[in-house]
Amino acid sequence: MRRRRTFILMFSILGIYSLLAAYLAYCQIIRGPRLAAQAADMRSQRIELQELTRGEILDRNLFPLTGSTSSLALYCLTSSSGSEDCRQLASVLAPILGQEAGEIEQELARALEQNSGWVRLAESLDERQQARINSLNHPALLTVPISKRYRNDGFCAHILGYLGGGDNPSGVSGIEKAYDEVLRRDPPRTQLVAVHDARGVAISGLMYKIRQEQQDEKSAVVLTIDRRVQTLAEEAMNRWVKKGAVVVMDIRTKEILALASRPTFDPYRAAANRESDAPLINRALSPYYPGSLFKILTTCAVLEEGLADPGEEFSCSGQYLMPDGFSFSCLRKTGHGRLNLAQAFALSCNPVFIELGSRLGRNRLIDYAGKLHLTDAAIIGYPGQAASEISINPGPRALANASLGQQGVRLSPVQICSLLATIADDGNWSPPRLLSCTVDSRGEKHYPQEAAREQVISPQTARTVQGLLEKVVKEGTGSSAAFPEAQVAGKTGTSQTGALKENEQEILDTWFGGYFPAQEPRWAIVVIVEEGESGARSAAPVFKEIARSMVGSLGTRAN
Prior knowledge:
It is built from 17 helices and 21 strands. The chain has 559 residues and is an alpha+beta fold. Strand 16 and strand 17 form a beta hairpin. The radius of gyration is 32 Å and the shape is elongated. The N terminus is likely disordered.
């Protein structure tokens, strides 16, 4: 019985081979050798369903910052078309795509000449365009979703950067440029497959399918950015800030959780973004006069040097008269009268801080800026940031200006955020960090070198300044940053730019920098709003919205 089954199986296999041999012989004798070769050499033509063949950029939780959106794209199977077909097809597609027929024809002809098979003719199709293309019922046309590298609304654009043109583009700015070598190694993932014969013609009945290639190992750059916090920051800026920046930092690790700049730009149209508002500039890394936020450094310095204490009393008449007769006015024109250092800090009294600056002197003020690494622009994982400097001219007037964060002092929002994080961390400094790790094409992770923590001011001085920052929000100029879910510590700032509006009023840059929860510091946030009214009115509400949203979504307990 078993032998009989074996014979039946053998005859069945022989029968199949006989039929196949007969079919090939038929093709060879009756239909010609060309068709026989086609039957014996069926193969697949593949294209990638990604906008770009490039490694991913991920946030700290491995959520994608690139490739997180999709759009409809139009593909054409050029190997099934001739030059005449290309001309006819271009004339039909031109009005649908809103392009010149000649341009489409050139694209099709180039793909046909290069024998590239598939060619992508358009992206970001709307539903109406898709319906019109599908109604053509053309066998060489296919509309499919593709993974887009960037969002068109400019989300995270200044961090990610953008790419140059060409089939294998290089990074022009941002992480794309800094880690171009890592990111350009990623192999294709999702592919569109058409079964072809030996001539490269798609075989009827075996048209298209999408194949997802599983890849456990692929190149990537993992940032310290938290996509949730980045989203909160960008949404708040969309509502409040036309020009400016926001930085959010983890106080303990000094990791940057969010970094946003306005105006932003569409990475697909970066070359066209040359407007007067300079959308390509990353304002979070750009130098500004810090205004009254620099009073944090002045206060740290006089406390460390024993040149003042929080209970010392001063007198403010509304101005500070220099030896040469020049006077600096206070924010309160009528003056604050008698007040101590804690009150002067909370109310941002200019005459008191000019007095403190004169006690310190030019050299010691510059030394403390260096001691607290305030001019150090280095960001771990983001190379190429040039160090800024504090350059104070000799003379009492220049020192007075610098003590107020004006002439001679220019700092970026990231540098100010680093200063606040140092104060909130009891005087411990380490450089800001943007990179978690890179992943190479073999799946191996590479971490940046750990930076040592440095005690740059005494814990006692840091805690005294922490109390002053809390007082600013409780009783002083920063009350508009307060919210009930967490106690806030911070400082307002309004800096003069020297530029004038059309109505001859001076353009002001307005700041709020702070951290929360004040009793157990976890996050620091700095906001700058260009052409604002004041730090309290223009910047503090942005801080409040972001901080309150973070408490609502992330909680307040420190890690």
